[in-house]
Design brief:
The protein is of the alpha/beta class. The chain has two domains: about 140 residues, Type I PLP-dependent aspartate aminotransferase-like (Major domain) (Aspartate Aminotransferase, domain 2), CATH 3.40.640; about 100 residues, Alpha-Beta Complex (Aspartate Aminotransferase, domain 1), CATH 3.90.1150. Helices cover about 40% and strands about 10% of the residues. The protein is built from nine helices and nine strands. A four-stranded mixed β-sheet has the order 1-4-5-6. Helix 7 runs parallel beside helix 9. The chain is globular and about 65 Å long.
Length: about 270
């Protein structure tokens, strides 16, 4: 987020926390002192660490400071509650490939009336022609002014993924992800492992599992893949070599998959 904003010419003030910890509202409040930012941006569900940041209070702080509130829901959409209107989110983006279980390639977005008004009142053109919402509004609106050739096949794929989500029920899908997280957590604790993300804010869809002392982290991942056809993610940044990242997203979040993984992990840890 910070890198993208800086490349667009923004002056970025970062608010950071130790990996695996959430961004606390108090940190945002402190960062907003003596500042009038245009945008406050937060990652809702952090895929690198398995932490889920509560954002309602952060949204209030952003609006009190006169800023728009931007939320990254790439990993959370479809897997846990994302309440755009209730949280007064001005701009939100996601991805199709995670909890929607759709092929990668589209980025669903939503903008509030306030965000669209800000875009319409710009004194200079948006630096990205492709992502200029003023142009896109005409393309998707009643005027149908041509802007680009839409990826129709991907739109059909997303339509089918959303149909399956509605068939299951959105809240039922959230509960399924929560149950599978609980099942996985119980199983890894039985193996003497733990989830390293902050207690009370652990993401259901992405589970950051501790690597036991003396265990070959990469070797276990390789054995899981070669012997059991199961691929999990490695730790990133400060958590490199310290965690395994186990995804339970969309159609993969099933009891059969969790049990299969736990059995395979136990087998790999024996060696």
């Amino acid at each position: 987020m910070a890198d993208v904003a800086a490349r667009c010419g923004a002056k970025v003030a970062k608010v950071e926390a130790p990996w695996g910890q959430i961004i606390e509202p108090g940190q945002i409040a402190e960062a907003l002192k003596n500042r009038r930012p245009k945008v406050v941006a937060v990652v809702h569900a952090e895929t690198s660490t398995g932490a889920l940041t509560p954002v309602e209070e952060i949204s209030r702080l952003a609006h009190d400071a006169g800023a728009l509130f931007l939320l990254d829901t790439v990993t959370s959409l479809g897997g846990c509650p994302v309440r755009i209107d209730d949280w007064q989110v001005d701009a939100v983006y996601s991805g199709t490939q995670k909890c929607l279980s759709c092929p990668p390639g589209l980025a669903p977005v939503s903008l509030s009336g306030r965000a669209l008004e800000v875009a319409a009142k710009r004194k200079t053109k948006v630096q990205s022609w492709y992502l200029d919402v003023n142009l896109l509004a005409s393309y998707w609106g009643q005027e149908r002014v041509y802007h680009h050739t839409a990826p129709i096949s991907m739109n059909y794929a997303l339509h089918e993924a959303l149909r399956l989500l509605l068939e299951e029920g959105l809240e039922n899908r959230w509960k399924r992800h929560q149950r599978m997280h609980g099942l996985l957590r119980k199983g890894i604790e039985a193996l003497g492992l733990r989830i390293v993300a902050q207690e009370g804010h652990q993401l259901w869809q992405l589970n950051a599992v501790s690597v036991p002392e003396g265990v070959d982290e990469a070797g276990v991942r390789k054995k899981l893949l070669n012997d059991h056809s199961i691929e999990i993610g490695a730790g990133l940044g400060p958590l490199k070599g310290k965690i395994w990242r186990v995804g339970l997203m969309g159609e993969t979040a099933t009891e059969a998959n969790v049990n299969r993984f736990l059995s395979a992990l136990a087998d790999c840890l024996k060696g």
